[in-house]
Amino acid sequence: MAVKWRDDMKAVEKIVKVISRFMFQISCVLVLALILIICADVVARYAFNSPIAWVYEMSYILGAFIAATGIAQLMLDGGNIRVDMFYAKFSKKGKLFVDVLFGVVLFLPSYAALTWAVIRNCITAYLTGEESVITTWYPKLWPIKLVLCIGLVLFLITYVLIIIEKIGKLLEEVKKGGKS
């Protein structure tokens, strides 16, 4: 039974990694697009005294897309930031305990609540036809909110997988009974 469960977890992890990598590659291309449209706007603004109306809005949309699609890959690569003042002094078991404790008690509920709120906001934006009113472009907002939902769901699944992995490692350390 336990072997089947681990096999299922590995399959889910593989799927999440493939999707996260794909979305991360899209976000890398969009960074270049963001740079190009901002440079084009700077040239249009200062060389021709005619800024491009939709650049401001497109830049925050692309920025949100880049952040949402890159966050799961960041977690998979271990690129998260932590304060090492105290953490570095812990044993391996202590580090795992802190990771699991804060992950289960603080971060997981927070990320789940955030993800749920964004999903509800996306559904509302779709049903009401919400448009951005920052510029005269008036783009529909549900597509970018959908990308945020996908990114946050991937991040949440990734985080759950990481916590489960750390719980397994912590249990192994406890079984060993020694300090590492």
Please, could you describe this protein's structure?
This protein is mostly helical. The chain has one domain. Helix content is 81%, strand content 0%. α1 (2-48) packs across α5 and α2 packs parallel to α5 (142-176). The longest helix is centred in the N-terminal third of the chain and has 47 residues, at 2-48. It is elongated. The mean pLDDT is 87.
Question: How are the secondary structure elements laid out?
Answer:
Elements: H1 2-48, H2 55-76, H3 84-87, H4 92-128, H5 142-176
Helix pairs in contact: 1-2, 1-5, 2-5, 4-5
Please outline what is shown here.
The protein is an all-alpha fold and 180 residues long. Helices cover 81% and strands 0% of the residues.
Distance between the termini: 29 Å
Give start-end ranges of low-pLDDT stretches: none
- Domain count: the total is 1
The biggest beta sheet is recorded as: none
Measured by DSSP, the beta-strand proportion falls in under 5%
Tally of helical runs:
5
Q: Give the overall average pLDDT.
A: 87
Number of DSSP-assigned strands: 0
Rg calculated over all Cα atoms: 21 Å
Characterize the overall form: elongated
SSE run: HHHHH
Question: What keywords describe this structure?
Answer:
180 residues; mainly alpha; elongated
